[in-house]
Amino acid sequence: MVFDAGLGSKPFYDSARRELGIIFRDFSLDRLDPAHPVFWSYYDLAKENPSGLPILEGITVRCRTVALVSRAGVVTGRRSEDSVRLGVNVASYVIAWRGWVKPERIPAVEIQESKKAYFDRLRIGQVIVGGDWKPRPFALPMLLQTFSRKTSVPVQSAIREVRLTDPGLFDLPFLYLSGHEGFRLTKAELYALSKYLESGGFLFAEACCGRREFDQAFRIELQRVLPDSLLTPVSPDDSLFTEPNRVKRMTVTPLLSGQLGRSVIEPRLEGVKLHGHYAVVYSPYGMAGCWEMSQNPYALGYNDNEAIRLGQNILMYAVTY
Questions:
Q1: Which of 86, 208, 225, 313 is 20 to 30 Å from 1 by CA-CA measure?
Q2: CATH of the domain at 308
């Protein structure tokens, strides 16, 4: 859905926001950042019009923007050629998703919360930070189910959403941090995460869809959390790539393939070791879309079941250490 406020009509804009708030109660209407595919899916608008991109807001569900709102009126409020290019980009974005995500691609997966006993040390906290911190809400539950079937280790499928300043943070031995956008931690959050990691906690983070804004922010913030440590590449021989699955080659999305010049690569993880073990593991390429079995066609990420197998390895590492 596209809501275009003709001539910048404020009543139309306000009503569009109100109605979208009713339709998508669990999602926020946010301004699209310049890296959003709507601005480059066919025409690179930032390159062609350096004077500035149009201001668009959107509702994004599972990495897919399902509604757009323009307060300025893209049809009547901009130069005609700019409007046409933006319209082509929107059409290209929609067509790519329609052609990529098909029902037969997504097997039926029932997410259940079992009443069995669980291993406490595998409870996972999804970290709440600024921006879009939960772009793939079903990714972790689905990965946990595949891990349980693969290893026979009982896991808790209910994920706790947690802020870094939550007193219960240290009850969660595994934290997961993801997102599309940049973010910045407060001093209290920096201190809490530093203490958590130094005390034996484990953090897995990924740049959802391989988004550059999240990648840059994560590297900066992690340096503030652990100023004496650096993210370094994980060796191909590390257990993260061998237990319980041997993962040596992974297919990537067309967009990432175009950047790298090849469609199959060695998996890439980076990490920080504390006290002899990885306290932080990070993937700059998107994995969660594969866990949900509906990867974003515009993602810089992996594109096959090997991402599920690699996710299982990361979980196993957290259990082992």
A1: 208
A2: 3.40.50.12140
